[in-house]
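Researcher: Re-running this chain for the archive, since the previous output was lost when a drive failed. Same request as before.
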Amino acid sequence: MPTDDLPETFHVTTDEQLRAVSNLTRHRIMAVLRFEPATITQIAERVGLAKGSSSYHVRLLERAGLVKVVRTRKVRGVTERYYAMAARSIELPDPGEGGPDVLMRHAVADLEASPARAERHVRMAHLRLTDEQFAELGARLEALADEYRALSDPALADASLVFALFHPATGDDAEGEAK
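Model: Regenerated structure tokens:
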């Protein structure tokens, strides 16, 4: 399926959609479908699931509108369905103050599950920036991610890029909440 036909962004707006993307297994299934359509069997093999479990999770994603059947074919009398993402990217709602950040939790789980001997670049930097510098850095990080996403080749192994630019809570923030 050519990705030219896909909408750019799918905005998660309902509780059903949020529950669907909040599950780590479904997050990993969506990663499989990021670049090319796959059958339940192919998804199960790539994620390391039983076909029944894979089918269950894909049905939930399909019901939530996050994935869709893009083609079918008959194989020995059985209709084989190929699933793909419903959009190139998925935008989650802001978790709100104190709420869990699903995207970051999945990213950490994926990082922890990645092979220890594989090359990785992980870094945390504490910065002190003006509001303008903060906004500029955020825009540059997003542009860099978009640039490399456009260069992605489905024939190559996956690489994940996750970044978070935020103002951490301070003692003053916690004190203000307690009042």
